[in-house]
């Protein structure tokens, strides 16, 4: 009986707690509007843990746990992998048909050089076919004559050159013996004997290299014929070929590509014509300096300077080094230093005066981009790739700049079209 008061007091306290809970739930239900979502606020955030997640052992969604930076890196990473794979496949295809690609690229460069002549003849009243035939025949005749002249000069001066080279080697041998490096005649003879032994032991490799040279000559002639036919068709039917190419582009992107094409062609034309003019000036002045210094084969060396000028930066170094070496083995050290001075002066004038003035703003490529593009083009396709690399980069730069500007203009035009017309003032009504 003594415990009955404690039991009654515990029962009363329990009833009070139940009443308080019922009262609290009633107030919460009365405070919410009708149709309100009874879902707790914590469930609105997917990153927030649920009320019983810690006790129930449930884990959040893995996508919600990954940080935002890692998600962005992953999204960019797989897209970059797709682009890299596409470029790799494209490079493999280009390597498989390298001869055709280089021949067509050469045809584009020649067309860019000859197209203004065709337009000028058409303005004079000649039909398109006749203007194309006259221009192509004159252009290919000039190229053939230049090649024949170079070969003729080299063969005509070959005997004299060999004698001068032999005298130059003897002169270099005497300079080496008199130098402060203590070079002995026996060391020079040992070096000559080792070179002779190397040549004699590698006769098969030299023969195979000669056969490979014949293969390269056949490929060169094939590519030249393909470039000639491509040039004829591009000169005669270039606009219709471009219109057919536009049909391969998706319709939404067609206006931007249609505007980028003429700008790319103007850039290519400016590059080719400017490079030809700069190369001609370099060849004339360097050839004149070599001729005044009485270095043999001055005219062929000038032609080589002209041809190597189509490889930016690298070509000037190679042609200048060739001229210096010929002067060294034929005329001696003093003449070689004078030729080096002539080459450096002409190249400085070219880099700081001729190229900025002739090419101007039409072809603006950073020197680092020039070096990298020449290196990549040379690795992929040799000399032909090095020649094509810089105009390709210039054209791509022009196309990307135009497409970027066109992409900015489209949203502005769309906003202008959907803008509501202004209401007329009351007085005008």
| Largest sheet features | none
Whole-number average pLDDT?
74
Global morphology: extended
Structural class of the secondary elements?
A: mainly alpha
- Uncertain stretches: 29-55, 423-429
Terminal residue distance: 101 Å
Rg for CA atoms = 39 Å
Helix content: over 70%
Kindly estimate the percentage of residues that lie in beta strands according to DSSP: under 5%
Number of strands: 0
Q: What series of H and E elements makes up the topology?
A: HHHHHHHHHHHHHH
Number of domains: 1
Total helical segments: 14
Notable features of this structure?
AI-2E-like, AI-2E family transporter, transport, mainly alpha, 429 residues, single chain, 81% helix, membrane, 14 helices, 0% strand
Kindly describe this structure:
The chain is an all-alpha fold. The protein has one domain. It contains 14 helices and no strands. The protein is extended.
How do you describe this structure in short?
The protein is mainly α and 429 residues long.
Secondary structure elements and pairings:
Elements: H1 4-31, H2 53-56, H3 62-65, H4 68-96, H5 98-123, H6 128-156, H7 158-178, H8 185-201, H9 203-246, H10 254-292, H11 298-308, H12 314-331, H13 333-358, H14 367-418
Helix pairs in contact: 5-6, 5-9, 5-10, 5-14, 6-9, 7-12, 10-11, 10-13, 10-14, 11-12, 12-13
């Amino acid at each position: 009986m003594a415990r009955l008061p404690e039991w009654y007091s515990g029962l009363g306290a329990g009833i009070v707690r139940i009443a308080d809970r019922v009262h609290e739930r009633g107030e919460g239900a009365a405070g919410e509007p009708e149709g309100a979502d009874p879902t707790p606020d914590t469930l609105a955030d997917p990153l927030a843990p649920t009320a019983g997640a810690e006790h129930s052992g449930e884990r959040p969604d893995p996508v919600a746990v990954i940080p935002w930076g890692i998600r962005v890196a992953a999204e960019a990473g797989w897209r970059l992998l797709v682009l890299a794979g596409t470029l790799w496949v494209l490079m493999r295809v280009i390597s498989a048909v390298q001869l055709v690609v280089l021949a067509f690229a050469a045809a584009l460069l020649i067309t860019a050089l000859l197209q203004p002549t065709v337009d000028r003849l058409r303005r004079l009243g000649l039909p398109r076919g006749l203007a194309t035939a006259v221009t192509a025949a004159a252009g290919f005749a000039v190229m053939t004559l230049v090649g024949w002249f170079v070969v003729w000069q080299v063969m005509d001066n070959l005997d004299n050159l060999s004698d001068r080279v032999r005298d130059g080697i003897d002169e270099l041998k005497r300079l080496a013996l008199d130098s402060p490096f203590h070079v002995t005649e026996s060391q020079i003879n040992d070096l000559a004997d080792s070179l002779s032994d190397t040549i004699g032991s590698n006769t098969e490799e030299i023969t195979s290299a000669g056969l490979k040279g014949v293969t390269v000559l056949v490929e060169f002639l094939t590519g030249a014929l393909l470039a000639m036919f491509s040039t004829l068709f591009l000169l005669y039917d270039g606009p219709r070929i471009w219109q057919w190419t536009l049909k391969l582009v998706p319709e939404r992107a067609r206006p931007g590509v249609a505007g980028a094409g003429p700008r790319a062609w103007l850039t290519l034309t400016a590059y080719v014509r400017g490079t030809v003019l700069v190369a001609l000036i370099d060849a004339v002045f360097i050839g004149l300096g070599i001729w005044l210094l009485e270095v043999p084969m001055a005219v062929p060396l000038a032609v080589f300077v002209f041809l190597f000028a189509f490889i930016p930066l690298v070509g000037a170094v190679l042609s200048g080094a060739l001229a210096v070496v010929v002067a060294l083995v034929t005329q001696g050290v003093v003449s070689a230093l004078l030729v080096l001075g002539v080459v450096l002066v002409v190249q400085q004038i070219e880099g700081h005066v001729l190229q900025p003035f002739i090419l101007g703003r039409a072809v603006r490529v950073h020197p680092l981009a020039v070096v990298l593009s020449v290196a990549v083009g040379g690795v992929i396709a040799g000399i032909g790739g090095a020649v094509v690399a810089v105009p390709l980069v210039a054209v791509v730069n022009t196309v990307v700049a135009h497409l970027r500007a066109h992409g900015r203009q489209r949203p502005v035009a769309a906003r202008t079209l959907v803008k509501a017309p202004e209401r007329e003032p009351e007085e005008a009504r």
